[in-house]
Each structure stands twice: as C-alpha cells, then as structure tokens.
Amino acid sequence: MKKIKKKEAPVLKSPENILRAAAYVFSFLNPVIGFIICVVFYPQQNKDASDFGKNCIILSLIGLALGIFVFIGMLVSGVMFMDMPALPGIETGEGYY
C-alpha cells in the first residue's frame, strides 16, 4: 500500500517596511482586518510572522477599546449639552416665525 504524504501548509513571511506599517494602521482603525491578519499569521511556525499576527490583534483590541471610549464620551457629552441653547443669549423656540 502506498503512503500518502501530508501536504504542509505554506510558510508565510510577515510583511516588511511599508506593508507592515499599513497592516498595523489598518488593524488599529478596523478591528476586523486586525483579526483576519491575526488568524492568518499567528499560527505560523516563523517567529517573526507569529509576532506580527500577535501585534495586529493587540492593535485591533486597543483601537476597539478607544473607539468604544470615544463613543461613550460623545454619548455622555451629547446628553450633557442637550438643554443648552445653540447660541448664548438667544432663545430658540419651535417652528419658524
């Protein structure tokens, strides 16, 4: 009986220079992209590629946390200033007169 050889997964090298920087920026701005990059690069045998994937997911989580923080800040500040008039000293009423 013939032995079937298992195909090994291709080894990916992590991007260098401008592509690495672009991946970090996109990971920070869009957590979904960071998660996809992490899924591709983190399980690699290459230490550099694995570290690259780990850095992308860390940046994704930081960007997500910062986005949530900004959203909550905007929500709170919008509620705080809801009762203030648009211009000080000018009363605004409903409708046009």
Largest sheet, strands/sense/barrel: none
What would you call the quaternary organization?
A: single chain
Bin the helical content: 55-70%
Overall 3D form: rod-shaped
Would you list the SSEs in sequence order as H and E? HHH
Structural class: mainly alpha
Report the uncertain regions.
none
Q: If you average the pLDDT, what whole number results?
A: 81
Instruction: Tally the beta strands.
Output: 0
Q: Mind telling me the C-alpha Rg?
A: 25 Å
Q: In angstroms, what separates the terminal alpha carbons?
A: 94 Å
Strand content: under 5%
Helix count? Answer: 3
Can you tell me about this structure?
With 97 residues, the protein is mostly helical. The protein has a domain at 18-80. The chain contains 3 helices and no strands. Helix 1 crosses helix 2 (31-41) and helix 2 packs antiparallel against helix 3. The longest helix is centred in the middle third of the chain and has 34 residues, at 47-80. The radius of gyration is 25 Å and the shape is rod-shaped.
